[in-house]
Amino acid sequence: MALPSCAEAPNDTVAPPTELATGPNPNTATAILNAGVMAELGGDLERGDTAGTRPVKLLFDPLYDDHWGTFEVPPPELVEALVTGAPPYDGVAAVFVSHAHGDHFSEEQLTAMLAAQADLVMVAPAQALDRMREAPGWDEALAERIRTIELANGEAAEAIAIAGATIEAFRSPHSGWPDRHAEVHNITFRVSAPAGEGLSARVMHLGDADPASEHYEALTAFLQARRTSLAMVPYWHYAQGGFDALLDETFNAHAAVAMHVPIEAPGYLARGERPFFTEVGQMVEIVPVE
Questions:
Q1: Domain boundaries, the chain
Q2: CATH 3.60.15 is the classification of domain 28-283
Q3: Dist CA 208 CA 69 (whole Å)
């Protein structure tokens, strides 16, 4: 499939896009646009309540410059809310960048985001920081809040902690490898937060990871060590033969939602039963796991 640079599934379906919820939504993943997802992990709030433990709020690939005539163009008000931390994007603990392609990453907007939100931490491949250092408005002091990752394909990084969440990461080839984008460091993030009763809410965001199962053989021990609640996969993974096995056995994930869906979504997405994100505010549940 030509692309621009860049266990059994649950019965969950993507909710119709309505007014974007602004309150805390423990253990949910909410679409931004394109590959952008907001995850709220852990916490014991019931929706609308203000007591108890608030979930940790995280953003994955939220800002991008290039749409290639294929993906939605973020409206200015969405970009402004993400950059400034306006609800529902307030209180974000960390923002994650899978790789430094323009349809996943905006060096200028992310620089502005870090400058506007003094407590925000960014986790990204070193290639992204290299580009941000060339962005207008860059201040080298911002680098103190950027955790960079530099790995070979098939390698996993040591876990770090941010705001009570455990951050793990590994590199696997960008889709199209080795003929295309072999030099791109595509990072998958696996992030967990306690969800009570000995369970964790755990998500993986795969960026533009190639779906071929052989890419993950060196990561078997890493992937099998912890079950993932929700794998956020690029949409073409759904077209992969044997996706059930890829999800359950290789990724060791309970459920999936597809992201990075083009404006003209392929018909197999609508014909299938698995959820996929196409509009701001669509939401799926994250089921806590052991």
A1: 28-283
A2: yes
A3: 18
- How would you classify the pairing of strands 28-31 and 37-41? antiparallel
> CB atoms < 10 A from the CB of 53, how many?
16
Helical H segments across 42-163, by residue range = 76-84, 107-116, 126-132
Query: Using an 8 Å Cβ cutoff, are 169 and 211 in contact?
Result: no
Q: What is the pTM for the complete model shown?
A: 0.90
* CB-based contacts of 95, cutoff 8 Å, min separation 6: 58, 59, 60, 62, 110, 113, 120, 121, 122, 123
Residue 44: how many CA atoms within 13 Å on its side-chain side?
8
Q: Using the 8-state DSSP alphabet, how is residue 277 labeled? A: -
**CA 204 distance to own-chain centroid:** 7
The enclosing H or E element of 243 equals helix 243-245
Strand (E) positions, 172-275? 187-196, 199-205, 228-234, 253-259
Q: Residues for the chain: how many in total?
A: 290
Mean pLDDT of 183-194: 95
Instruction: Note the pLDDT tens digit of each residue in 132-147.
Output: 999 999 999 999 999 9
Nearest residue to 28 via CA among 8, 12, 16, 9: 12
How crowded is residue 270: how many other Cβ atoms within 10 Å of its Cβ?
Answer: 9
CB 73, CB 225: distance < 8 Å: no
154 in Cβ contact with 215 (< 8 Å): yes
What's the first-to-final CA gap in the chain, in angstroms?
Answer: 36
Whether the pLDDT of residue 16 is over 70: the answer is no
